[in-house]
Amino acid sequence: MAAGIYLHIPFCKSRCSYCDFATDVYRDSGAVERYVDALCKEITEFSPQMSADDADRVIHSDPHHLRSSAALSSFSPDTVYFGGGTPSLLSPGQIERILKVVHDKFVVIADVEITMEMNPATVTPETLQSYRLLGVNRASFGVQTFDDRALKLLARGHDANDARTTFALLRAAGFDNVSFDLIAGLPGQTLSDWEKNLDEAVALSPEHLSLYLLEIHSGTPLAEQLRSKRQPTPDPELAAEMYEMMLDRLAAAGYDQYEISNFSRRGFESRHNSKYWKLDPVFAFGVSAHSFDGRQRYANERDTAKYVDLIESADSAEVMREDIDIASEFVFLGLRLEKGVDLGEYARRFGIDLMKKYEAELSEMRNGGLVETVCGHLRLTRKGKLFSNEVFAIFV
Ligand code: SF4
Q: What's 330's domain CATH number?
Protein backbone atom coordinates (compact mmCIF):
# COMPACT_ATOMS: atom_id res chain seq x y z
CA MET A 1 0.00 0.00 0.00
CA ALA A 2 1.35 3.46 -0.88
CA ALA A 3 2.16 5.59 2.13
CA GLY A 4 3.55 9.10 2.45
CA ILE A 5 6.68 10.08 4.32
CA TYR A 6 6.77 13.52 5.98
CA LEU A 7 10.04 14.94 7.31
CA HIS A 8 9.85 18.06 9.47
CA ILE A 9 12.77 20.49 9.29
CA PRO A 10 12.05 23.11 11.94
CA PHE A 11 14.64 25.79 11.14
CA CYS A 12 13.96 29.23 9.66
CA LYS A 13 16.15 32.29 8.99
CA SER A 14 13.89 34.34 11.26
CA ARG A 15 10.40 34.02 12.67
CA CYS A 16 7.46 35.45 10.74
CA SER A 17 5.05 37.60 12.76
CA TYR A 18 2.03 35.31 12.18
CA CYS A 19 3.76 31.95 12.63
CA ASP A 20 2.75 29.44 15.26
CA PHE A 21 4.46 26.40 13.70
CA ALA A 22 7.12 24.42 15.53
CA THR A 23 10.12 26.35 14.23
CA ASP A 24 13.45 27.56 15.53
CA VAL A 25 15.69 30.27 14.19
CA TYR A 26 18.74 28.76 12.47
CA ARG A 27 21.61 29.97 14.68
CA ASP A 28 24.02 27.12 15.17
CA SER A 29 25.06 24.67 12.44
CA GLY A 30 26.09 22.19 15.16
CA ALA A 31 22.54 22.10 16.53
CA VAL A 32 21.15 21.60 13.02
CA GLU A 33 23.54 18.71 12.40
CA ARG A 34 22.50 17.14 15.71
CA TYR A 35 18.86 17.49 14.66
CA VAL A 36 19.57 15.76 11.33
CA ASP A 37 21.29 12.93 13.25
CA ALA A 38 18.21 12.56 15.48
CA LEU A 39 15.84 12.60 12.50
CA CYS A 40 17.88 9.89 10.75
CA LYS A 41 17.90 7.82 13.95
CA GLU A 42 14.13 8.14 14.35
CA ILE A 43 13.58 6.92 10.77
CA THR A 44 16.07 4.06 11.14
CA GLU A 45 14.45 2.78 14.32
CA PHE A 46 10.86 3.22 13.20
CA SER A 47 8.51 0.28 13.06
CA PRO A 48 4.77 0.69 12.43
CA GLN A 49 2.24 -0.82 14.79
CA MET A 50 0.32 -2.44 11.98
CA SER A 51 0.97 -3.81 8.52
CA ALA A 52 0.06 -2.24 5.21
CA ASP A 53 -2.61 -4.95 4.73
CA ASP A 54 -4.17 -4.03 8.04
CA ALA A 55 -4.06 -0.34 7.24
CA ASP A 56 -5.66 -1.04 3.88
CA ARG A 57 -8.37 -3.14 5.51
CA VAL A 58 -9.09 -0.54 8.16
CA ILE A 59 -9.16 2.37 5.77
CA HIS A 60 -10.84 0.78 2.79
CA SER A 61 -13.15 -1.93 3.96
CA ASP A 62 -13.54 -3.22 7.48
CA PRO A 63 -12.79 -0.67 10.19
CA HIS A 64 -13.30 -3.23 12.95
CA HIS A 65 -10.77 -5.80 11.79
CA LEU A 66 -7.17 -5.47 12.94
CA ARG A 67 -4.21 -7.78 13.02
CA SER A 68 -1.25 -7.21 15.28
CA SER A 69 1.51 -8.06 12.82
CA ALA A 70 3.80 -5.36 11.48
CA ALA A 71 5.12 -5.55 7.93
CA LEU A 72 7.03 -2.41 7.17
CA SER A 73 8.22 -3.49 3.75
CA SER A 74 4.64 -3.73 2.53
CA PHE A 75 4.24 0.05 2.85
CA SER A 76 5.70 1.48 -0.34
CA PRO A 77 6.03 5.25 -0.06
CA ASP A 78 5.16 7.10 -3.22
CA THR A 79 5.67 10.54 -1.66
CA VAL A 80 8.39 12.10 0.46
CA TYR A 81 7.76 15.61 1.74
CA PHE A 82 10.32 17.89 3.42
CA GLY A 83 8.18 20.39 5.33
CA GLY A 84 8.99 23.07 7.81
CA GLY A 85 10.24 25.45 8.82
CA THR A 86 12.53 25.99 5.88
CA PRO A 87 14.02 22.68 4.64
CA SER A 88 16.04 24.57 2.01
CA LEU A 89 18.28 25.80 4.86
CA LEU A 90 19.70 22.27 5.00
CA SER A 91 22.77 21.57 2.87
CA PRO A 92 22.46 19.15 -0.04
CA GLY A 93 24.68 16.80 2.00
CA GLN A 94 22.16 16.78 4.85
CA ILE A 95 19.24 16.21 2.47
CA GLU A 96 21.18 13.36 0.84
CA ARG A 97 21.80 11.76 4.24
CA ILE A 98 18.10 11.89 5.17
CA LEU A 99 16.97 10.54 1.79
CA LYS A 100 19.44 7.68 2.02
CA VAL A 101 18.00 6.64 5.39
CA VAL A 102 14.46 6.80 3.94
CA HIS A 103 15.50 4.62 0.98
CA ASP A 104 17.29 2.17 3.29
CA LYS A 105 14.23 1.86 5.51
CA PHE A 106 11.35 1.81 3.04
CA VAL A 107 10.67 0.31 -0.38
CA VAL A 108 10.20 3.66 -2.09
CA ILE A 109 8.47 3.39 -5.48
CA ALA A 110 10.37 4.43 -8.59
CA ASP A 111 8.32 7.49 -9.58
CA VAL A 112 8.16 8.88 -6.05
CA GLU A 113 7.08 12.53 -5.67
CA ILE A 114 9.72 14.26 -3.52
CA THR A 115 8.66 17.74 -2.45
CA MET A 116 10.78 20.29 -0.65
CA GLU A 117 9.36 23.40 0.97
CA MET A 118 11.61 26.40 0.39
CA ASN A 119 11.62 30.07 1.19
CA PRO A 120 12.78 32.89 -1.06
CA ALA A 121 16.38 33.99 -0.54
CA THR A 122 17.46 30.64 0.91
CA VAL A 123 18.52 28.88 -2.30
CA THR A 124 21.24 29.26 -4.92
CA PRO A 125 21.56 27.78 -8.43
CA GLU A 126 24.04 25.28 -7.00
CA THR A 127 21.89 24.06 -4.09
CA LEU A 128 18.82 23.76 -6.34
CA GLN A 129 20.82 21.77 -8.86
CA SER A 130 22.01 19.46 -6.07
CA TYR A 131 18.49 18.96 -4.71
CA ARG A 132 17.35 18.01 -8.23
CA LEU A 133 20.16 15.50 -8.58
CA LEU A 134 19.13 13.96 -5.24
CA GLY A 135 15.65 13.34 -6.65
CA VAL A 136 13.71 16.35 -5.36
CA ASN A 137 11.18 16.82 -8.17
CA ARG A 138 8.65 19.22 -6.65
CA ALA A 139 9.25 22.60 -5.00
CA SER A 140 6.78 24.41 -2.79
CA PHE A 141 7.83 27.86 -1.73
CA GLY A 142 6.33 30.54 0.44
CA VAL A 143 5.67 33.76 -1.47
CA GLN A 144 2.67 34.84 0.68
CA THR A 145 2.40 38.23 -1.07
CA PHE A 146 4.18 40.23 -3.77
CA ASP A 147 3.65 43.43 -1.76
CA ASP A 148 6.84 44.57 0.01
CA ARG A 149 4.92 46.54 2.64
CA ALA A 150 2.93 43.45 3.61
CA LEU A 151 6.06 41.27 3.57
CA LYS A 152 7.61 43.64 6.12
CA LEU A 153 4.48 43.49 8.27
CA LEU A 154 4.65 39.68 8.18
CA ALA A 155 8.40 39.82 9.02
CA ARG A 156 9.02 37.39 6.18
CA GLY A 157 12.73 38.22 5.87
CA HIS A 158 12.58 38.55 2.07
CA ASP A 159 11.10 40.92 -0.46
CA ALA A 160 8.95 40.33 -3.53
CA ASN A 161 11.96 40.38 -5.84
CA ASP A 162 13.52 37.53 -3.85
CA ALA A 163 10.37 35.51 -4.58
CA ARG A 164 10.52 36.32 -8.30
CA THR A 165 14.22 35.41 -8.37
CA THR A 166 13.59 32.12 -6.54
CA PHE A 167 10.93 31.18 -9.08
CA ALA A 168 13.34 31.92 -11.96
CA LEU A 169 16.11 29.92 -10.24
CA LEU A 170 13.77 26.93 -9.80
CA ARG A 171 12.88 26.97 -13.49
CA ALA A 172 16.55 27.35 -14.47
CA ALA A 173 17.43 24.34 -12.29
CA GLY A 174 14.83 22.25 -14.15
CA PHE A 175 11.98 22.23 -11.61
CA ASP A 176 8.88 21.64 -13.73
CA ASN A 177 6.52 21.09 -10.80
CA VAL A 178 6.49 24.23 -8.70
CA SER A 179 3.93 25.41 -6.19
CA PHE A 180 3.78 28.56 -4.17
CA ASP A 181 1.62 29.90 -1.35
CA LEU A 182 -0.19 33.21 -1.13
CA ILE A 183 -2.13 34.59 1.86
CA ALA A 184 -5.26 36.73 1.48
CA GLY A 185 -6.93 38.92 4.10
CA LEU A 186 -3.76 40.62 5.36
CA PRO A 187 -4.15 43.71 7.58
CA GLY A 188 -4.70 46.74 5.34
CA GLN A 189 -4.88 44.61 2.16
CA THR A 190 -7.49 45.85 -0.33
CA LEU A 191 -9.35 43.88 -2.97
CA SER A 192 -7.25 45.55 -5.62
CA ASP A 193 -4.02 44.61 -3.76
CA TRP A 194 -5.18 41.00 -3.74
CA GLU A 195 -6.05 41.16 -7.43
CA LYS A 196 -2.48 42.31 -8.20
CA ASN A 197 -1.15 39.31 -6.28
CA LEU A 198 -3.37 36.94 -8.25
CA ASP A 199 -2.33 38.59 -11.52
CA GLU A 200 1.34 38.16 -10.74
CA ALA A 201 0.87 34.56 -9.60
CA VAL A 202 -0.99 33.69 -12.80
CA ALA A 203 1.62 35.48 -14.93
CA LEU A 204 4.39 33.35 -13.42
CA SER A 205 2.31 30.25 -14.22
CA PRO A 206 3.36 27.75 -11.55
CA GLU A 207 1.90 24.26 -11.83
CA HIS A 208 0.23 24.54 -8.42
CA LEU A 209 -0.98 27.26 -6.04
CA SER A 210 -2.01 27.09 -2.38
CA LEU A 211 -4.02 30.13 -1.36
CA TYR A 212 -5.00 30.68 2.26
CA LEU A 213 -6.89 33.23 4.28
CA LEU A 214 -4.79 34.72 7.08
CA GLU A 215 -5.30 33.02 10.42
CA ILE A 216 -4.42 34.95 13.54
CA HIS A 217 -2.87 32.76 16.24
CA SER A 218 -2.84 34.09 19.77
CA GLY A 219 0.60 34.66 21.20
CA THR A 220 2.12 35.69 17.86
CA PRO A 221 3.53 39.21 17.32
CA LEU A 222 0.86 39.85 14.68
CA ALA A 223 -1.93 38.98 17.12
CA GLU A 224 -0.44 41.50 19.55
CA GLN A 225 -0.22 44.19 16.84
CA LEU A 226 -3.90 43.69 16.06
CA ARG A 227 -4.90 43.61 19.72
CA SER A 228 -3.07 46.87 20.40
CA LYS A 229 -4.58 48.39 17.22
CA ARG A 230 -1.16 49.00 15.67
CA GLN A 231 -2.53 47.19 12.61
CA PRO A 232 -6.11 47.18 11.29
CA THR A 233 -8.06 44.00 11.97
CA PRO A 234 -8.80 42.21 8.68
CA ASP A 235 -12.45 42.34 7.63
CA PRO A 236 -13.94 38.83 7.22
CA GLU A 237 -16.39 40.03 4.57
CA LEU A 238 -13.56 41.47 2.51
CA ALA A 239 -11.66 38.18 2.95
CA ALA A 240 -14.71 36.34 1.59
CA GLU A 241 -14.73 38.64 -1.46
CA MET A 242 -11.03 37.88 -1.93
CA TYR A 243 -11.74 34.15 -1.80
CA GLU A 244 -14.44 34.50 -4.47
CA MET A 245 -12.16 36.62 -6.64
CA MET A 246 -9.51 33.94 -6.35
CA LEU A 247 -11.93 31.21 -7.48
CA ASP A 248 -12.92 33.23 -10.57
CA ARG A 249 -9.42 34.41 -11.47
CA LEU A 250 -7.78 31.00 -11.20
CA ALA A 251 -10.57 29.19 -13.03
CA ALA A 252 -10.22 31.72 -15.87
CA ALA A 253 -6.47 31.04 -15.93
CA GLY A 254 -7.04 27.30 -16.35
CA TYR A 255 -6.36 26.10 -12.81
CA ASP A 256 -8.54 23.37 -11.33
CA GLN A 257 -9.56 23.80 -7.72
CA TYR A 258 -9.17 20.31 -6.31
CA GLU A 259 -9.34 21.25 -2.63
CA ILE A 260 -10.66 24.25 -0.69
CA SER A 261 -7.26 26.01 -0.69
CA ASN A 262 -5.42 24.23 -3.51
CA PHE A 263 -5.38 24.75 -7.27
CA SER A 264 -3.36 23.07 -9.97
CA ARG A 265 -2.86 22.48 -13.64
CA ARG A 266 -4.33 19.11 -14.55
CA GLY A 267 -2.08 16.28 -13.32
CA PHE A 268 -0.18 18.50 -10.88
CA GLU A 269 -2.29 17.98 -7.75
CA SER A 270 -0.07 17.44 -4.71
CA ARG A 271 0.11 13.67 -4.40
CA HIS A 272 1.41 13.98 -0.83
CA ASN A 273 -1.15 16.44 0.52
CA SER A 274 -3.95 14.47 -1.12
CA LYS A 275 -3.07 11.61 1.24
CA TYR A 276 -4.26 13.66 4.21
CA TRP A 277 -7.64 14.33 2.60
CA LYS A 278 -8.04 10.74 1.42
CA LEU A 279 -7.01 9.26 4.78
CA ASP A 280 -4.03 7.35 3.38
CA PRO A 281 -1.21 6.54 5.82
CA VAL A 282 1.49 9.17 6.32
CA PHE A 283 4.50 8.39 8.51
CA ALA A 284 5.92 11.63 9.84
CA PHE A 285 9.33 12.15 11.42
CA GLY A 286 10.89 15.04 13.30
CA VAL A 287 9.83 17.53 15.91
CA SER A 288 6.04 18.01 16.17
CA ALA A 289 5.48 15.59 13.28
CA HIS A 290 1.96 14.10 13.10
CA SER A 291 1.46 10.61 11.65
CA PHE A 292 -1.57 8.55 10.65
CA ASP A 293 -1.09 4.80 10.26
CA GLY A 294 -4.56 3.90 9.01
CA ARG A 295 -6.08 3.57 12.45
CA GLN A 296 -4.37 5.95 14.86
CA ARG A 297 -2.98 9.44 14.78
CA TYR A 298 0.13 10.15 16.81
CA ALA A 299 2.47 13.08 17.30
CA ASN A 300 5.98 13.90 18.42
CA GLU A 301 7.24 16.35 21.01
CA ARG A 302 6.89 19.98 19.85
CA ASP A 303 10.08 21.44 21.32
CA THR A 304 13.15 20.84 19.13
CA ALA A 305 15.72 20.47 21.93
CA LYS A 306 13.45 18.07 23.84
CA TYR A 307 12.75 16.10 20.64
CA VAL A 308 16.50 15.63 20.04
CA ASP A 309 17.08 14.61 23.68
CA LEU A 310 14.22 12.10 23.57
CA ILE A 311 15.41 10.49 20.33
CA GLU A 312 19.01 10.34 21.57
CA SER A 313 18.08 8.82 24.92
CA ALA A 314 14.87 6.89 24.33
CA ASP A 315 14.48 6.31 20.56
CA SER A 316 10.98 7.79 20.55
CA ALA A 317 9.67 11.32 20.90
CA GLU A 318 6.00 10.35 20.74
CA VAL A 319 3.85 12.37 23.13
CA MET A 320 0.32 11.71 21.81
CA ARG A 321 -1.51 8.75 20.28
CA GLU A 322 -5.24 8.42 19.67
CA ASP A 323 -7.73 6.30 17.77
CA ILE A 324 -9.65 8.34 15.27
CA ASP A 325 -13.25 8.13 14.15
CA ILE A 326 -12.55 7.10 10.57
CA ALA A 327 -16.16 7.49 9.42
CA SER A 328 -16.27 11.14 10.60
CA GLU A 329 -12.88 12.00 9.18
CA PHE A 330 -13.79 10.38 5.87
CA VAL A 331 -16.63 12.88 5.58
CA PHE A 332 -15.13 16.14 6.71
CA LEU A 333 -11.80 15.55 4.96
CA GLY A 334 -13.66 14.41 1.82
CA LEU A 335 -15.72 17.60 1.88
CA ARG A 336 -12.50 19.59 1.51
CA LEU A 337 -12.09 18.04 -1.93
CA GLU A 338 -13.81 19.53 -4.95
CA LYS A 339 -15.37 16.17 -5.81
CA GLY A 340 -16.74 15.80 -2.30
CA VAL A 341 -17.62 12.60 -0.46
CA ASP A 342 -18.49 9.50 -2.48
CA LEU A 343 -21.78 8.44 -0.85
CA GLY A 344 -21.63 4.92 -2.31
CA GLU A 345 -18.14 4.38 -0.96
CA TYR A 346 -19.18 5.69 2.45
CA ALA A 347 -22.07 3.21 2.55
CA ARG A 348 -19.80 0.35 1.46
CA ARG A 349 -17.11 1.12 4.02
CA PHE A 350 -19.21 1.99 7.02
CA GLY A 351 -22.52 0.28 6.32
CA ILE A 352 -24.43 3.52 6.85
CA ASP A 353 -26.39 5.81 4.57
CA LEU A 354 -24.72 9.17 5.23
CA MET A 355 -27.67 11.20 3.91
CA LYS A 356 -30.05 9.38 6.26
CA LYS A 357 -27.76 9.52 9.25
CA TYR A 358 -27.46 13.32 9.05
CA GLU A 359 -30.81 13.92 7.36
CA ALA A 360 -31.93 16.89 9.46
CA GLU A 361 -28.56 18.68 9.48
CA LEU A 362 -27.92 18.13 5.77
CA SER A 363 -31.38 19.28 4.83
CA GLU A 364 -30.75 22.54 6.70
CA MET A 365 -27.36 22.95 5.01
CA ARG A 366 -28.87 22.23 1.62
CA ASN A 367 -31.65 24.76 2.16
CA GLY A 368 -28.99 27.28 3.16
CA GLY A 369 -27.16 26.61 -0.11
CA LEU A 370 -24.04 25.23 1.60
CA VAL A 371 -23.99 21.65 0.28
CA GLU A 372 -25.26 19.82 -2.78
CA THR A 373 -25.37 16.26 -4.11
CA VAL A 374 -23.84 15.76 -7.55
CA CYS A 375 -23.34 12.37 -9.24
CA GLY A 376 -23.52 10.44 -5.97
CA HIS A 377 -21.15 12.81 -4.14
CA LEU A 378 -21.95 15.17 -1.28
CA ARG A 379 -19.97 18.35 -1.79
CA LEU A 380 -19.67 21.95 -0.69
CA THR A 381 -21.21 24.60 -2.92
CA ARG A 382 -19.27 27.77 -3.66
CA LYS A 383 -21.05 29.42 -0.71
CA GLY A 384 -20.35 26.33 1.41
CA LYS A 385 -16.61 26.75 0.85
CA LEU A 386 -16.86 30.13 2.57
CA PHE A 387 -18.63 28.59 5.56
CA SER A 388 -16.86 25.25 5.48
CA ASN A 389 -16.09 25.15 9.21
CA GLU A 390 -19.80 25.29 9.99
CA VAL A 391 -20.46 22.34 7.68
CA PHE A 392 -17.50 20.32 9.02
CA ALA A 393 -18.73 20.87 12.59
CA ILE A 394 -21.69 18.54 11.93
CA PHE A 395 -19.40 15.59 11.42
CA VAL A 396 -16.83 16.14 14.19
S1 SF4 B 1 8.92 30.67 7.05
FE2 SF4 B 1 7.06 29.54 7.60
S3 SF4 B 1 7.65 28.18 9.27
FE4 SF4 B 1 9.27 29.73 9.06
S5 SF4 B 1 8.75 31.30 10.55
FE6 SF4 B 1 7.84 31.91 8.57
S7 SF4 B 1 5.74 31.06 8.58
FE8 SF4 B 1 6.90 30.05 10.23
A: 1.10.10
The verdict on residue 304 lying in a domain is no
CATH number at residue 64: 3.30.750.200
Is residue 346 within 8 Å of residue 330, measured between CB atoms?
yes
Total number of domains constituting the chain: 2
Helices (H), the chain: 29-44, 52-60, 92-105, 125-133, 148-153, 160-172, 191-204, 221-227, 236-252, 271-278, 304-314, 326-334, 343-350, 354-357, 359-367, 382-386, 388-395
The verdict on 260 and 342 lying in the same domain is: no
Domain of 337, in residue numbers: 326-395
Distance between Cα 146 and ligand 1 center (Å) = 16
Which residue's alpha carbon is at the smallest distance from atom 8 of ligand 1? 19
CA angle 204–206–209, rounded 5-degree value: 115
Q: DSSP letters along 216-278, please? A: PPTTSHHHHHHHTTSSPPPPHHHHHHHHHHHHHHHHHTT-EEEETTEEESTT-S-HHHHHHHH
141 and 199 fall within a common domain: yes
Q: Is residue 210 located within the same domain as residue 342?
A: no
pLDDT at residue 62 above 90? Answer: no
Q: Are residues 16 and 165 in the same domain?
A: yes
Q: Which of 11, 13, 21 to mutate to test the pocket of ligand 1 (most atoms within 8 A of CB)?
A: 21
**Tens of pLDDT, residues 110-165:** 999 999 999 999 999 999 999 999 999 999 999 999 999 999 999 999 999 999 99
Residue 19 CA to ligand 1 center (angstroms) comes to 6
Q: Enter the pTM of the model.
A: 0.92
Domain ends where: 215, 244, 277?
277
Give 182-230 pLDDT, tens digit per residue.
999 999 999 999 999 999 999 999 999 999 999 999 999 999 999 999 9
| Distance between Cα 15 and ligand 1 center (Å) | 6
Residue 316 in any domain: the answer is no
What is the enclosing helix (H) or strand (E) of 296? strand 296-300
Residue 290 lies in a domain: no
Look at residue 344 and tell me if it is in a domain: yes
